[in-house]
Amino acid sequence: MTSSMIRKLNGLLRTESLGKVIRYQDEVESTNTTLLELGEKGASEGTVVIADKQTRGRGRLEHSWISPAGKNLYISILFRPEIVAIDAPVFTLIASIALVEVIQKLGLDDVNIKWPNDIRIAGKKVSGVLTEMRPRREMTDFIVVGIGVNINMSREEINSEMGDVATIATSIKENLDKDLDRAKFAADLLIELEKWYKVFTNRGRGKSTILSEWASKWGDKDKRVSVSINDEEEFEGKAVGIDDKGYLIVELNSGDTTKVLAGDVKTI
Ligand code: BTN
Asked: Ligand 1: distance of its center to the CA of 32 in Å?
């Protein structure tokens, strides 16, 4: 994204709060890190940080997020919901739902979610979500939702820039066979995100609506999975669902179920 694209994004935005303040930088370490700092200084709900390039893009489980310039979307959004801290992971679910909706509207159909935070097109990862929270006692002070989307990278660029993960990664361009307007994609994403955020906060049954919407977009229901935790403990089972905190429920061979909070889950 360049600053002229941000002007375009501003013109396209039809949101009440998300993106009313947009901080754009050509290059940052991580848009999440920048927005966490702004959050500590009191930045308001809906503040957005977008960068054209990240030098230390971060993923879940200390992974890095490869973030070359000129091609993709790296965006972080600040929320200040009145919720208990343990409910913060629901924001990963909200962002995942919004991403699937926006990508499907581009005309792609084989789009789904891999627990907990990957979006896949035809089985390959196109996007990831990193939700980080700062608590205030048992409540949430603020939440930063960071989203990376591989948009206009060609297969050749993925292969040359993504190293080990190139074979399991994809981009929107690779699937649509054309370049996409990143400003329009960002605007559509913020609009969809605000819609699902309202579903979560406005209705009495917001959280259960989010959980069931997520489940309908989840690609691995009832698939056999192998789960590794901290590269140590490893077990297999059947992925059967998520609980109300967003933990993955796995049915073991014994018939007992176990919950996974953070781990690497592969379908087998
Ligand atoms: C993952 O798949 O593990 C999550 C990846 C999240 C990447 C995005 S890019 C924008 C924001 N800034 C970061 O440093 N990470 C997130």
From this structure: 8
Sheet holding 118-121, edge to edge: 22-28, 48-54, 73-79, 139-149, 124-136, 118-121, 111-114
Q: What is the largest CA-CA distance in the chain?
A: 58
pLDDT digits (tens, 9 = 90+) for 83-136: 999 999 999 999 999 999 999 999 999 999 999 999 999 999 999 999 999 999
Q: From the CB of 117, is ligand 1 less than 6 Å away?
A: yes
Ligand 1 atom 10: residue of nearest CA: 74
Structure tokens at 237: 């089972």
Quickly count: other Cβ atoms within 10 Å of residue 262's Cβ.
12
Amino acid, res. 225 = V
What are the pLDDT digits (tens) for 201-213?
986 689 999 999 9
Q: How many residues would you count in the chain?
A: 268
For residue 236, the number of C-alpha atoms closer than 13 Å in the C-beta half-sphere is 5
59 lines ligand 1 (CB under 6 A): yes
Pocket lining: 76 vs ligand 1, CB cutoff 6 Å: yes
Task: Find out whether the beta carbon of 34 lies less than 6 Å from any atom of ligand 1.
Answer: no
- What is the model's pTM? 0.96
Phi and psi (nearest 5°) for 3? -65, -30
In whole angstroms, give the CA distance from residue 155 to residue 229: 31
